[in-house]
Amino acid sequence: MGCAKELVESVARVTLVAAGQPSGDNADYQKVLGLAHKTIEHAVGAGLSASDPLRQVPNAAMKMAVHLRELRNRYGTGHGRAVVHNITPEVVDTCVHGALIWSRWALARMQTVLMGAVRPLVDDLLDGGTFYGGNLTERLQAANIVNLEEPDQRALGLAVGQRAARATFNVRIEGIQACSKVPNNWPPAYREAALQGLFINPDGQLYTDPDHSASSAALLLQQHPEPDTALTELRLLVADASLSLEFETSSGVTITAMEAATPQVPASAQETWKAITDDLRQRSAG
Q: Hey, which of 1-15, 35-49, 66-80, 224-238 has the most confident mean pLDDT?
């Protein structure tokens, strides 16, 4: 009885660690199980209603696993008792299958959880991980960006923008150009952070892909609900950033590309876009 409950708890904790959400060793069993289940369910994908069988069946498995704690308290090890309850085959079968059904489902989902884990993906983007065609698409789909908390959306967007600025074309195609295909899958927080990453490197310096940062930025803004607000924030960041050596040597190309991209920027944000372009021109000339 005790082992059945411990198996579920171990799988739940491993799931949380894999997703970058470790739990305290004294955390309540049901809390740990619930968090782990939510993490794996999150990986199922966007657009599934709460009544969808793909959610209802795993939810039923989790409810079975939740009751293992009570069964373990009543029949299993870990407690001294004045009376020992009779452990029937039914009790054994219930505990074994209740533990295995949820655990098998959770472990089968683990690859998706690992693929979509935000922190490892951000690290791979910033630390030079290799992205072949389709790699980033799969990992962003597994991350289910629209259902992430806003800080995670921003962390992913910033890392994608900064990697795209380093001329990694697969990242630019799958993390930025893809935003125009299914706009609702790319929330404003992701777009804003990716926009900033196209101009600001991890050291806080101005850094661009001279040929693509401007056009990529215009694309991100086209489906943004408040493009001028996003550009106003970018302008403040640009003002506070020093010029990287790479930007100093290629600023003219970037500025020319920004001028050419102006018609693609939403009309409501074009004045701020031009102001950023002028700011960069003045700083480069200085």
A: 224-238
Question: Distance between CA atoms of 164 and 158, rounded to whole angstroms?
Answer: 10
- In angstroms, what is the C-alpha Rg of the chain? 25
- Give pTM, 2 decimals: 0.74
Torsion of CA 123, 126, 128, 133, to 10 degrees: 90
Query: How far is 68 from 66, CA to CA, in rounded Å?
Result: 5
Task: Report the C-alpha gap between 258 and 274 in whole angstroms.
Answer: 8
The Cα–Cα gap between 54 and 32 comes to 21
pLDDT in tens, 185-219: 999 999 999 999 999 999 999 999 999 999 999 99
Structure tokens at 65: 């696993």
Q: Which of 12, 17, 22 is nearest to 61 (CA)?
A: 12
Between CA 111 and CA 213, with CA 128 as vertex, the angle to 5 degrees is: 110
